[in-house]
Amino acid sequence: MFKLQPYKRLSEAIQNEAFEPMFAWGLRMAIAGAVPVIWGIATHHISPGVWIALTAECICWVELKGTFGQRIRVLLGGTFLAFVFAILGSITGTSIWISTAAMLVVAFISSLFKNLGDRGSGLSICVYLLFIICNAYPATSFDELKTRAFLVLAGAGWTVLVSLLIALFMPARQPYRRSIALIWKAISGLIVTVSKGWDGKTPRSSTRDIYLQEKELRTAIDASLTFHSATVHQVSKKDKHEYQLAQLRKATALIGTHIISISGELEGVNTKTIDTSLQLKISGLFSALQQAADRMAVYVLTLRPEEELLLTSRLSRLNKLVLLLKEYKVDSDPELAITIKRIIQLTERAMKLFDSCLARLKEMDDDLPVFRSYSLYKTLYTLHPKHWINNLVLLFNFNTFTTRYALRAAAAATVAMFIYKWFNIDHGYWLPFSVIIVLQPYFGATFKKAVQRIAGTIVGGLVGGLLLRVHTGMHIKEIMLCLSFIFMVYYLRRNYGIAAFIITLNLVLLFNIEAPVTQGLIITRALATIGGAALAVIAGFALLPNWDRKWLPVHLANAIHTNYEYFLFTFFSPAPNVNWTRMKRNAESKNSNAFDSFSRYMQEPGGGKKTYSTYFQLITHNVRLTREINNIHLEEENRTASDTGTATPEQQERINDCLYHFNDIIQLISNFDPEIKIEVLLSDENYLSPFRLTEHELLYLDKMIIELQEMHYDLQKLVDVNGKA
Predict the structure, then answer these.
(1) DSSP 3-state helix, strand, coil percentages of the chain (rounded to 5)?
(2) Any alpha helices (H) in 328-399, and if so which ranges?
(3) The CATH number of 174-367 is which of 3.40.50.300, 1.20.58.220, 3.20.20.70, 3.40.50.2300?
(4) How confident is the model at residue 606, as a pLDDT?
(5) C-alpha to C-alpha distance for 241 and 371, rounded to whole angstroms
(6) Does the pLDDT value for residue 491 go beyond 50?
């Protein structure tokens, strides 16, 4: 078993790379960064080679996701920004006061790039680092400025060339399919978490563990929508591939909702009191579902016929296990019998969605490479001004959180730049650079990253210093430089401490090519990093901080309000099943915001957390409300054409009862967010819901009433505590 462990890890690494190509990203950076260095050494143009490599490395920090057109826009936008801010740094570096003023503007703008998501973080590093390095080595004449501009453009052009050459051979729709495959991987992880405890060997997962996996699924769906935003209702059937992929993504998301529903049905079942054979059948059912989800993820990504065959065999096994579960008789416990029947029903619906996904993939033609799929017109259309305008609007979205963060970052970076320039610290540009890297929108994340960066920087500097003592003829430094490009990207999201170590090692080796790095310089670098991290922590604590003890009630109020709108959409709108998944996404996203805020709240320094259990209970109630409304819509999705009609008066009375409890809660949440504007709907005796409720839907409605009553009690308790405070 021990001997197989390395092979198992290698297999997992290869599989993870297929879904999230971090190694390929690192390899792109290695080619873009190492080739100019090799050219510089070979032709004795070391300084130009280093500048080209530095520019290439900065632009390569921008992760290339999405379609070929999106990648072109990101690369061209990165090239433009790199050039502008490199020139700005080059012409301001001779004056301490102009440098400090420019730092204020650059830090503010680069922090706003957080609005653009993952790509924005890379652009932020690109802009900030190039400005700081060029400012540290300013151009003292017009000829030097022209040379600097040429080298920056050469580095940017080389990066664009390498990136596009790689992208041209990529299947055109692979990024879309990869985003859907990642949703399937998240579903697989959710099934594993839900299934724990049913094998009789492991303890069952807690409500929190299941919700965290549910959040992973929500994150994967949101990531897909970020880069491929067109939903089923927005895509024409004429665009065959886009339509099929949009339908595939919707069906995939619905399977995840069915798994959550199965988890909810089993929540009240005690594994210790049921028959062992039934327990093993349920465990086997989960195992088959998880294997089918894994195989579907691989098939969606690769479209290989052999993967389709494996997937078909897993679905066949799943069908047999459902039949075995149907044959099991639970005569002694009617309530358990109802639960098992419901699980079978939900699993069969999930299997139909599996078949639908398989059919969608079969209807698609071969996924041709980009160079065969993009015509000249289509390529030029990717540069349409509307795309740039949309990104600019998104970039300068001055909401409360990003604006406060940008102002905080700008102030801290400006102070760091002033200290570096005023005391003329050798290579002191690491001081403002560490500030922007460490500083995060929230204090807890800033402190954690500061600790990781300080540790990684000190160790990286020491290892880099030892490597510099190695004999030149062994070429170990050059080999380590090339490898560092790859591994610093690979560990960027896995372990930031290791990534900081490799980044430090990379820069020590890179700058040593042009001029020898001394031991004193490594110590200065470490001290500057510690100083920059300290400034970031102080700024996060004292300057316009986003304390979640203040924002948690606001996030909670917004989550409850969104659930209220979801409820009204479901029972008090003429067409509740039209694009209901949009309402579902909104509710789940708000729940996620509240949960994340609660997690940060628990990490904040200071006391005053006596109400944390009440907040957690309220978030849990709200999550369950969303799930019950989702379950009602799932029932409607599977309703037959003959089973239609409006709600009966008795059913409407129970709906109005639910509305009554919701309205009571809505009156209370204004205590948590005075600025929230809510239109309360009063019940109408003559109104009937546009669909007749099934037996299961009535049960979900009763569960909602219980959750609402408990939520009202907890909210009132919080209002009373805050009133006394």
Answers:
(1) 75, 0, 20
(2) 334-363, 370-373, 376-381, 385-395
(3) 1.20.58.220
(4) 66
(5) 17
(6) yes
